[in-house]
């Protein structure tokens, strides 16, 4: 049924409203000006970021913290290319984001016009799907499809490129039902019987939990399965929070910087139940020596993940909320549970550290013990990221946002902005490093503009720490381009954006400084100076089996 | 090196070929040939893709199947056997 005529740009906001989009992140420019003009009359609240990459990461943080679709805007050419890293990050971590880019007018497309780039071509490798709308009559359908695709099955980013003339063209709103996707991949029925048979026979099963559990909103089902079966459990980086960190059978993260107990247990297990996990190389170490004696049951929503890196003996495809309960069965594995719990006791974290210098793991444990309920922590990428994953406890995946698959430095600060916008009443903390924070430091201006009370814990070793660690360990100590001792004065930098800031250098300052930060009613930067030679332990060297980890001796 | 023929049907969208070629290359398959036609009656594209790789063809089938505009992907076993002999 035809109704009022409106511009393509106005139609965009109508569709956003229909998808309950209240907040978008973006940056205006020439080819997206009609959309920014329509924004003027819209109820959608726009958060001006100071770089399109910041807008993309804020949209990701928003999506991950709130389990809604994140939306970002950018203009054509450089605006669009600046989004690309964020889209790649969202694809790697399966985050539902809809990115809207302006494009030069259709008549100018393909002429190397000012600020023209084939963003549609660029998007092929870094989105779940992408559209270029060359007829305004297609716009409504495409936008609805974009939201449906972003959320359907394994979630991911979708880009919609809209030429300027399409934004200003008049069109009738059609009110069609466009959100229904055809379910083209017919999933085989879950082979529950075979899975139960493997579970019955197993003497040393392990539950290996990935980010797919949170994406499927199957936390309750997972915890119920873990409790009923009593299977000792481990988590990937992106799975942290899915399992109850207080559960006696939970051993923490596995993989390159996983706990010793997790890695030894996985290597010794005779049945590995992978739930929403994809056998990533940072998890498996040397693939053909990963869990060498284990049968595998693999739960996933994505057919393409089955047998991609590890052959599954039983694959259970589909919705975890449906499939996990069908395998609940008490198991008699008390001896194995005791073995795993003994390893946890024997190889637990130690926080004793010689001297007065601050020990980052102890800071993060202290922070974890003191934060309010429902605190959401984002990180950047590097040593501080791994220390956060190791030493902070999370009770839900929406409370730990980190760039897992892509490992994108510069993620943490803008992701925290997005999280804070989506959860204005929760405490949002970004743990960053002195290398990473400089990657999107301009977003301090976004914090200032919107007076967002984001807390920044800056673990500062004046180094590109993780690369320095690898250079020390694997490149004969030949330190190449990892010295950052000429960083700016971070206290002055924060203050330039009206952000309260404090530096600490000694252990005895930690507890009081964390309290001051958490008590502060506004944004705060806590610069924590640590020893430049501190390493992340344990470490499984590249292409090495996970039980051959290096430790701090 | 194993040689395979895939028979793909897809919505008739110009970019669908680009998507298929990008996925095939990225997932480690050498493209040896392609034959694409459109059935104008139902706007369905019919694509024969000839690829070779050391990797299992199932990996590529699953990845192409994930593309939004793809309707079906099958491996032509007859062609596969004759080219790998």
TrEMBL record, chain A:
Its EC number is 2.2.1.6. This is Acetolactate synthase. The keyword Amino-acid biosynthesis applies. Residues 194-324 form the Thiamine pyrophosphate enzyme central domain. It catalyses: 2 pyruvate + H(+) = (2S)-2-acetolactate + CO2. Residues 380-528 form the Thiamine pyrophosphate enzyme TPP-binding domain. Residues 7-120 form the Thiamine pyrophosphate enzyme N-terminal TPP-binding domain. Pfam families: TPP_enzyme_C, TPP_enzyme_M, TPP_enzyme_N. Binds 1 Mg(2+) ion per subunit. Belongs to the TPP enzyme family. CDD domains: TPP_AHAS, TPP_PYR_POX_like. The lineage of its organism: Bacteria, Pseudomonadati, Pseudomonadota, Gammaproteobacteria, Alteromonadales. Keywords: Amino-acid biosynthesis, Branched-chain amino acid biosynthesis, Magnesium, Metal-binding, Thiamine pyrophosphate, Transferase. It comes from Thalassotalea eurytherma.
UniProtKB/TrEMBL annotation, chain B:
It comes from the Bacteria. It comes from Thalassotalea eurytherma. The lineage of its organism: Bacteria, Pseudomonadati, Pseudomonadota, Gammaproteobacteria, Alteromonadales. This is Acetolactate synthase isozyme 2 small subunit. SUPFAM superfamilies: ACT-like.
């Amino acid at each position: 049924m035809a109704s009022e005529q409106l511009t393509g740009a106005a139609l965009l906001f109508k569709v956003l409203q229909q998808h309950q989009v209240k907040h978008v992140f973006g940056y205006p420019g020439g080819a997206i000006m009609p959309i920014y003009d329509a924004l003027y009359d819209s109820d959608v609240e726009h958060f001006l970021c100071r770089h399109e990459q910041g807008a993309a990461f804020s949209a990701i943080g928003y999506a991950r913290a709130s389990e809604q679709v994140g939306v970002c805007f950018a203009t054509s050419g450089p605006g669009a290319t600046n989004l690309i890293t964020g889209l790649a990050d969202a694809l790697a971590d399966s985050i539902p984001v809809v990115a809207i880019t302006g494009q030069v007018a259709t008549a100018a497309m393909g002429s190397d016009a000012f600020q023209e780039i084939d963003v549609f071509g660029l998007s092929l490798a870094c989105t779940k799907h992408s559209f270029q709308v060359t007829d305004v009559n297609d716009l409504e359908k495409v936008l609805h499809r974009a939201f449906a695709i972003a959320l359907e099955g394994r979630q991911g980013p979708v880009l919609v490129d809209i030429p300027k003339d399409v934004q200003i063209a008049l069109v009738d709103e059609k009110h069609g039902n466009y959100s229904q996707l055809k379910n083209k991949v017919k999933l085989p029925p879950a082979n529950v019987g075979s899975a139960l048979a493997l579970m019955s026979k197993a003497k040393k099963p392990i539950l290996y939990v990935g980010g797919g559990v949170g994406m499927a909103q199957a936390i309750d089902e997972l915890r119920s399965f873990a409790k009923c079966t009593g299977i000792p459990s481990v988590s990937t980086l992106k799975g942290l929070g899915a399992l109850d960190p207080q559960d006696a059978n939970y051993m923490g993260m596995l993989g390159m910087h996983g706990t010793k107990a997790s890695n030894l247990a996985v290597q010794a297990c005779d049945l590995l139940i992978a739930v929403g996990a994809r056998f990533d190389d940072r998890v498996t170490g040397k693939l053909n020596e990963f869990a060498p004696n284990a049968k595998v049951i693999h739960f996933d929503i994505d057919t393409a993940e089955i047998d991609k890196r590890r052959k599954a003996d039983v694959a259970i495809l589909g919705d975890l909320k449906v499939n996990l309960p069908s395998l609940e069965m008490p198991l008699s594995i008390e001896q194995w549970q005791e073995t795993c719990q003994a390893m946890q006791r024997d190889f637990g974290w130690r926080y004793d550290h010689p001297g007065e210098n601050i020990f980052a793991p102890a800071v993060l444990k202290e922070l974890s013990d003191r934060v309010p309920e429902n605190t959401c922590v984002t990180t950047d990428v590097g040593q501080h990221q791994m220390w956060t994953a190791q030493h902070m406890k999370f009770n839900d995946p929406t409370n730990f946002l980190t760039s897992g698959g892509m490992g994108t430095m510069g993620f943490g600060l803008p992701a925290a902005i997005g999280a804070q916008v989506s959860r204005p009443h929760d405490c949002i903390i970004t743990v960053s490093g002195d290398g990473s924070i400089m990657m999107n430091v301009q977003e301090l201006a976004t914090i200032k503009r919107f007076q967002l009370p984001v807390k920044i814990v800056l673990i500062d070793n004046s180094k590109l720490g993780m690369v320095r660690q690898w250079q020390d360990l694997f490149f004969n100590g030949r330190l190449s381009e990892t010295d950052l001792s000429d960083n700016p004065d971070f206290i002055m930098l924060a203050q330039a954006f009206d952000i309260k800031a404090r530096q600490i250098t000694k252990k005895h300052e930690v507890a009081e400084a964390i309290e001051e930060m958490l008590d502060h009613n506004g944004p705060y930067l806590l610069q924590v100076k640590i020893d430049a030679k501190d390493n992340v332990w344990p470490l499984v060297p590249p292409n090495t089996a996970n039980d051959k980890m290096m430790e701090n001796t | 090196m194993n040689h395979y023929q895939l028979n793909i049907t897809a919505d008739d969208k110009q970019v669908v070929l680009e998507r298929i070629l990008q996925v095939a290359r990225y997932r480690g398959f050498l493209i040896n040939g392609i034959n694409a036609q459109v059935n104008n009656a139902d706007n369905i594209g019919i694509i024969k893709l000839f690829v070779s790789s050391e990797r299992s063809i199932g990996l590529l089938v699953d990845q192409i199947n994930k593309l939004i505009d793809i309707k079906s992907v099958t491996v032509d076993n007859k062609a596969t056997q004759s080219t790998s002999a």
